[in-house]
């Protein structure tokens, strides 16, 4: 399967196509399982995706949601990834609270990371050293090429043994908890929604520069054989398309 990318005229269309892909993949999972697992990202772009997902008729009560990363803020804070997903997706789609496995951003970062790892291990029935395999994992990418909360130069960008950790993002002066590369690469399917002209250079570097995820963390979902599908708007894909 490997990596594929598609570009669309604008962010709304890219988000709609990403939502259609997401629903189709989850339908496939539920055709053979009683429930599906999905890890979500935050930021500004996902709101479009969440609104599209909320508008789809789907048995969301059969999907358990986790988070790729979270800022260390309470769940009702404007910066909370959980709050964004709740307002734009879970509340209008009536997703049961029992299906939401959030990162507790209101506690100390190390505590939140430890509790999140425990929750994931409990849910998936993992032994120490085992990685969870999410049915679908949604990620984005920043203008600097970061993905999840793995920023360029972050030493944990090479971590393959641990599930999640607290990280201090110096560029934004903020503590976060993030899933680590071993989990990102273990997902059965990954989708990335990336829009905006400010990300065009990072998109091009992620796909074309030599593989070095410590410098370009988003390469964890752009090079190699792990299944990942990128949904780009024309602005973000501009430099990549120019080389085709």
Number of strands: 9
Query: What global shape is seen?
Result: globular
Give the averaged pLDDT, no decimals. Answer: 95
Indicate the low-confidence ranges by residue numbers. Answer: none
Rg over C-alpha atoms, rounded to the nearest angstrom: 17 Å
Strand residue percentage:
15-25%
Q: Indicate the percent of residues in helices.
A: 25-40%
Number of spatially distinct domains: 1
CATH class: Alpha Beta
Number of discrete helical segments: 7
CATH architecture title: 3-Layer(aba) Sandwich
CATH topology: Rossmann fold
Q: Would you tell me the structural class of the helices and strands?
A: alpha/beta
| Sequence of secondary-structure elements | EHEHEEHHEEEHEHEH
Q: Please outline the major beta sheet.
A: 6 strands, parallel
Strand order of the largest sheet: 1-9-8-5-2-3
Structure explained in plain terms:
There is one protein chain. The chain has 244 residues and is α/β, with parallel strands linked by helices. It has a single domain, classed as Rossmann fold (3-Layer(aba) Sandwich), CATH 3.40.50.1360. Helices cover 34% and strands 19% of the residues. The chain has a 6-stranded parallel beta sheet with strand order 1-9-8-5-2-3. It has a 3-stranded antiparallel beta sheet with strand order 4-7-6. A hairpin with a 4-residue loop joins strand 6 and strand 7. The two termini are 20 Å apart.
């Amino acid at each position: 399967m490997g990596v594929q990318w598609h570009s669309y005229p604008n962010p709304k269309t890219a988000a709609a196509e990403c939502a259609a892909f997401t629903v189709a993949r989850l339908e496939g999972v539920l055709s053979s399982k009683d429930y599906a697992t999905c890890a979500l990202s935050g930021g500004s772009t996902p709101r479009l995706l969440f609104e599209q997902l909320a508008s789809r008729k789907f048995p969301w009560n059969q999907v358990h949601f986790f988070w790729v990363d979270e800022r260390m803020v309470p769940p009702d804070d404007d910066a909370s990834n959980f709050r964004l997903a709740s307002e734009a997706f879970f509340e209008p789609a009536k997703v049961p609270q029992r299906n939401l496995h959030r990162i507790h951003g209101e506690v100390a970062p190390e505590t939140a990371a430890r509790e999140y790892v425990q929750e994931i291990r409990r849910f998936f029935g993992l032994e120490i050293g085992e990685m969870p395999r999410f049915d679908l994992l949604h990620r984005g990418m920043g203008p600097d090429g970061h993905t999840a909360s793995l920023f360029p130069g972050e030493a944990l960008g090479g971590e393959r043994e641990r599930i999640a950790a607290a990280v201090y993002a110096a560029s934004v002066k903020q503590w976060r908890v993030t899933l680590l590369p071993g989990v990102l690469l273990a997902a059965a399917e990954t989708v990335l929604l990336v829009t905006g002209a400010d990300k065009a250079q990072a998109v091009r570097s992620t796909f074309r520069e030599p593989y070095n995820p410590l410098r370009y963390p988003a390469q964890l979902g752009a090079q190699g054989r792990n299944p990942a599908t990128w949904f780009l708007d024309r602005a973000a894909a501009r430099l990549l398309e120019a080389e085709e």
